[in-house]
Design brief:
By secondary structure, this protein is α+β, with helices and mostly antiparallel strands. The protein has 3 domains: about 5-75 and about 140-220, no CATH class; about 80-135; about 240-350, no CATH class. It has 8 helices and 17 strands. A hairpin with a 5-residue loop joins β1 and β2.
């Protein structure tokens, strides 16, 4: 036990501070060959790289070696909705091919039974699977799950993982340091650039959700809590108490201005409209060769979809026509256009509302 807590020197910063690490820690073992050189390029006195001398805090910095030196466990992925849509389309193609095969078999049996002396017409050859469907048909396509990593405290939220992917080459080493008096403690080091803090982290930024909606840990690269089953539901896109008034308040603003907001989640298009005659919450349905239709949906479903596109573009239609006058707006810009202030103030205003008109049935 004592040996696992023994501290050793692992390097010196460019600004002269000694860096210590737990000798028994596994959080930097893979980067040990490059650690001393990486630390020698970190300057604790430079505000751009870390914290000024004497200030208590942390440094999280990546150092680029200019050539691949290891594999990053955080990789870029498609969004959850895009992956589910690809899985759905691959499954539909597979079912269609199975149906065609069954029909061909029935046709062959019927031909032999009723026309045994005649030559059966040639049947269409089996179609080759489109390239985009093959990974999913072979069980090798991306699958995203959310699980709790075993690192650190119990209050950590769920992290995004992707299955059927491999770590990718990286030229960077990222070090995580915490000041302790005149020295720094190495909390961890890994290959790859500095990722955004996770959405549940107290250090989360406005870019955290967007980053972790399009990046994930490679499944198997991090230990997870096996006592808590992994889930496919993204924890930061689910409706929360904080956002319970978002939809009704936005609808009130849209009614006041006679505008409509459409937004896409995967293959579905939701609509919040204050346009006279169709005020309410809808899902739009696009049909080949016919006019689009819409059906009313519940507030909870629209709220969940609304959260799922946080930080992504909305389509704001300023006229009754879909194309003329259309402009792309971010969620921040929606808030500014309707409320004249930033998103934080908007959400505080939403939270402050306790009595709002009921939504149209």
């Amino acid at each position: 036990m004592a040996s696992s807590l023994q501290m050793k020197k692992v390097g010196t910063l460019a600004s002269g501070e000694t860096v210590l690490a737990n000798e028994g820690s596994q959080r930097y073992k893979g980067t040990a060959r490059f650690l001393a050189r990486a630390l020698a390029r970190v300057n604790a006195h430079n505000p751009e790289d870390g914290f000024p001398a004497g200030e208590v805090g942390m440094i999280i910095q990546s150092v680029d070696f200019g050539r691949p030196i290891g594999n990053s466990n955080v990789v870029a992925t498609r969004r959850d909705g895009e992956i589910r849509d690809a899985q759905r389309r691959a499954g539909a193609w597979r079912d269609e091919q199975a149906s065609k095969k069954t029909q061909a078999e029935h046709f062959a049996k019927a031909w032999v039974k009723h026309r045994p002396d005649e030559v059966m017409p040639a049947q269409p050859l089996a179609e080759e699977a489109p390239e985009e469907f093959r990974p999913y048909l072979e069980g090798k396509g991306e699958v995203v799950v959310y699980a709790r990593r075993k690192l650190g405290a119990k209050d950590r939220g769920l992290s995004r993982f992707v299955k059927n992917r491999q770590p990718e080459p990286s030229s960077e080493v990222t070090v995580v340091l915490k000041r302790q008096g005149d020295t720094f403690l190495l909390l961890g080091a890994f290959f790859g650039g500095v990722p955004e803090p996770q959405p549940w982290d107290k250090r989360a930024t406005a870019c955290s959700e967007e980053f972790w909606n399009t990046h994930a840990f490679v499944w198997g690269s991090e230990e997870v809590d096996e006592q808590e089953p992994a889930t496919t539901k993204c924890p930061w896109t689910l409706p929360t108490e904080k956002h319970k008034w978002a939809i009704p308040w936005l609808l009130l603003c849209l009614v006041d201005k006679g505008l409509t907001v459409d937004f896409r989640v995967g293959g579905r298009i939701f609509q919040i409209t204050g346009h006279p005659g169709i005020v309410g919450l809808w899902e739009r349905h696009l049909h080949v060769g016919s006019h689009p239709t819409r059906s009313r949906v519940g507030e909870a479903e629209v709220e969940k979809a609304f959260r799922a596109v946080c930080g992504h573009p909305f389509v704001l239609y300023s006229t009754q026509q879909d194309e003329p006058g259309a402009e792309w707006l971010s969620r921040q810009e929606v808030a500014e256009k309707f409320f004249g202030n930033n998103m934080i103030s908007w959400e505080r205003e939403i939270e402050a509302k306790t009595r709002l008109p009921k939504l149209p049935k």
